[in-house]
Amino acid sequence: MGLTLVYLSLFKLGSGSGVLTPDATNGAVVLHAYVQNTFGGLGSFFLAALIFIACMVTAVGLTCACAEFFEQYLPFSYKTLVFILGLFSMVVSNLGLSHLIQISIPVLTAIYPPCIVLVLLSFTLRWWNSASRIVAPVMLVSLLFGIL
C-alpha cells in the first residue's frame, strides 16, 4: 500500500511539473527540480539523504543475495563475490542514469516476455505430463518476440 502511494505521488508530480524542467532527460532531473522549487535547498538535502538510504538498502540486499546465490555455483567465497559485485557496481554507477537507462532498456525489453511467460507457466506446470516439452518452446518463442 505504501509503495502504491509513492508511485501515485510520483505520477502526479511528473504530470504536473513539466513546466519546471521542459528539457529534462530523466525523472531524477524532474524530481530534483520539483523538490528544489517546493522545499528549497533543505528539501534537496533531504531528497538526497532519502535516495541515498533507499539505494544503500537495495544495494546491500542485492549484493548479499547475489553473492549468496553465486557462491553455490562459482568457486569463489562469499566475501570474494561481495567484493567483485561491489567493484562491478561502482564501475556501473559511474555510467550515469541516462546512459544506464539507454543500455538497460533493450535488455529489459528482451527479457520481459520470457519472464512473464515463465511466471504464467509456473502456475500450470502440474497440468503437463512433461513440463520441459512445453516450457522450452514457449520460452524460446517469447524470447524471440522480446528480441524482435
From TrEMBL:
Subcellular locations according to the entry: Cell inner membrane; Cell membrane
Show the stretches that span the lipid bilayer.
42-64, 76-97, 103-123, 130-147
Keywords, comma-separated and alphabetical: Amino-acid transport, Cell membrane, Membrane, Transmembrane, Transmembrane helix, Transport
The record's Gene Ontology biological-process terms are:
isoleucine transport; L-leucine transport
- Name any GO cellular component annotation: plasma membrane
Report the principal subcellular site. Answer: membrane
What membrane topology is given? Multi-pass membrane protein
GO molecular function annotation: L-isoleucine transmembrane transporter activity; L-leucine transmembrane transporter activity; L-valine transmembrane transporter activity
User: Which family would the database say this protein is a member of?
Assistant: Belongs to the branched chain amino acid transporter family.
Function statement: Component of the transport system for branched-chain amino acids.
Can you name this protein?
Branched-chain amino acid transport system carrier protein
Question: From which lineage does this chain's organism come?
Answer: Bacteria, Pseudomonadati, Pseudomonadota, Gammaproteobacteria, Enterobacterales
